[in-house]
Structure formats: C-alpha cells, structure tokens
Amino acid sequence: MRRDRKIVWHPAGMAAIAGKRVIVVGGTGGIGRAISRLLASHGADVTVVGRRFRDADRPGIAFVPADLGLMGEARRVAEELPAGNADILIFTTGIFAAPHRQMTTDGIERDLAVSYLNRFVMLRSLAPRLGRDRRDAAFRPRIFVMGYPGTGAAGDPGDLNAERRYTALGAHKNTIAGNEMLVINLARRFPGIGSFGLNPGLIRTDIRGNLLGENSLRHRIVETLIGLLAPDADSYARRIAPLLLSPDLERFNGAMFDRKARAILPTAALTPDHIDRFMAASERLAQPWLEGASSPRL
Ligand SMILES: NC(=O)c1ccc[n+]([C@@H]2O[C@H](COP(=O)([O-])OP(=O)(O)OC[C@H]3O[C@@H](n4cnc5c(N)ncnc54)[C@H](OP(=O)(O)O)[C@@H]3O)[C@@H](O)[C@H]2O)c1
C-alpha cells in the first residue's frame, strides 16, 4: 500500500455526528458493530443490517434483518431502507472464502455473494436515493465501502464466480477488487455522493471463521495472535469515526483510507477498461435480481 499524500483531511469533532442518520450494512458484528455503537453513543440515528442483532439494549440503533448471501434479500432490504433521509451509508458485511468452494442457493460463490455482490445489488437501489430527501444537509451524502483497497488485487472478471478455478485467496481477491472498483465507479457515476474505500488492516473479529473453521482451535489461536498484535474493532472505530464526518471529504471523491485513516493510492491495475469489464461481469451475474430495477447501471 502506498500513501496518497495529496489527500489531507482534518478530523471532525464527534459532536458533528449528533442527529446524523447512518445506515451500516454489516453493523451487527465486528467492525461495523463497533462503528455503529460509537456513532450511536454520540447521538447518531443508526440503522444496522445483518442476521443477528446484539444491541437491542442500545439507544439509537435500529435493526433490519437480512441474509445478504441471498441476492433477493439484498434487493428487498435495499428497497426498504430509509436511504432518502440517510447522511452516511457504510458497508461492512463480509466473510472470508472457505478452503473449498461454497455456493449459495442462488448459485453464487459464497464469499463473492456475502462480501461483494450484495453490495452491488443494493447500491442499484440505494445510490440514486441516498440523502435525496434531506433538508439543510451540511454535506453531500457519503458512502464508505469497507474491504481491502489499495493492496493490488485486480480480480478476474472472466471468472467472477470462480467456476473454472477455485482457491480461497483467488475468490477473496475478487471481492477485494470488486469493492475497490465499486468505490471508483460510484465516484464516477454519482458525483453528487462522496464515495470512499476503507481498509482497516488486520483487526481481531470473526471474519476468518469461514476459512479456519468457526470457533475451531486454529481460529481461536489466530484471532488471539491478531488481538495481541493489532488494534481491536473499537480502537479502529475510534480512529476512523472522525474521518466519516470530516468536512474535508467534500473536496475528494473515490479516495481510499488505511487502518490509520490515512489516504492511500488505489490499485494501479484498476483501469477504467478493467472496471467496465468487472462491472459488466457483476451485472451479468446479478441480472436475475436486478430485473425491473429502474435505477442506472453501476
Ligand atoms: N477483520 C479484519 O482483519 C479485516 C481485514 C481486512 C478487511 N476487513 C473488512 O472489514 C469488514 C468487516 O469485517 P469484520 O472483520 O468486522 O467481520 P465480522 O466480525 O465477521 O463481521 C461481519 C459482519 O457481516 C455480517 N454478515 C456475515 N454474513 C452475513 C450474511 N450472510 N448476511 C448478513 N450479514 C452477514 C455479520 O452479521 P451477523 O453476525 O449478524 O451475521 C457481521 O455484521 C469486511 O468488509 C472485511 O472484508 C476486515
């Protein structure tokens, strides 16, 4: 990862978050949950999407259930979410690809479905509506896509669904590349929205369970080691929160930020031509769940 020193931002005080409407897709666990709880504790009105709600006792957090491994669910929930009034939309849903190819009942490789393709489907409905009904908004609406941007993954638009060849890393790289390209493409197609990529680096969460075996000894050892070496989700949330509201983001679009919220350069291989091919491959794969969608292509 290389720093982008042209992008300099100054933190917004946490008071700026009071009263803001935030949607966190993936806000029920791990990093998304830490961000949701922090923003709600400073007065934000947060809606989280996920499978298991763990914060019913917390004021300021509403829950919308959805299994985002299923594209029909992704479309349904996107159409139901109160995007018109939202100031900030954050995507943090994710898993890691399993050692052997797993497929959802939609016929989609599971990591691709959970970590990338549902975002592609949801954004078709969410991006055109985001923040449209707000009054007196101090800034343009913002989308933050969490993944692993700036790390050189280009993905394979010729085998997006890993049907010809499967490795866990190869499949996961399709999700990493796809999410980085979503940011670049959103900035291109929706200049009225600020779109940004977030790379949290290594954080101790549940994300590697699908690769290492949920709650297996190996999983617990790896996460314990990560916990010793890297910050936890709450520390990362405290680091990234002042960026989410920074007035300086009005001047940039499509920027990526590392684990310390410093701007980083996008992956060089993600040329406009490559992005168009990847988006077209995503469109083909998601087509059955996009039918009848009136919103523009991503
Ligand atoms: N942790 C790291 O070291 C690391 C490193 C690089 C990038 N990232 C990125 O950071 C983001 C957050 O990851 P994390 O580490 O916080 O992971 P995590 O602790 O496993 O949390 C993942 C979130 O995704 C949700 N989720 C998983 N499967 C779902 C499904 N089928 N339907 C609906 N929601 C589902 C979970 O909700 P439920 O619990 O409700 O199912 C949870 O809210 C991801 O984009 C990941 O790629 C993380």
Automatic annotation (TrEMBL):
Question: What is the superkingdom listed in this entry's lineage?
Answer: Bacteria
Write out the entry's keywords from A to Z: Oxidoreductase
Q: Which residues cross the membrane?
A: none
One function term, GO molecular function aspect:
oxidoreductase activity
Which InterPro entries did the record assign?
A: NAD(P)-bd_dom_sf, SDR_fam, Sec_Metab_Biosynth_Oxidored
A Pfam match is adh_short
This protein is called: Oxidoreductase
The source organism is Edaphosphingomonas fennica
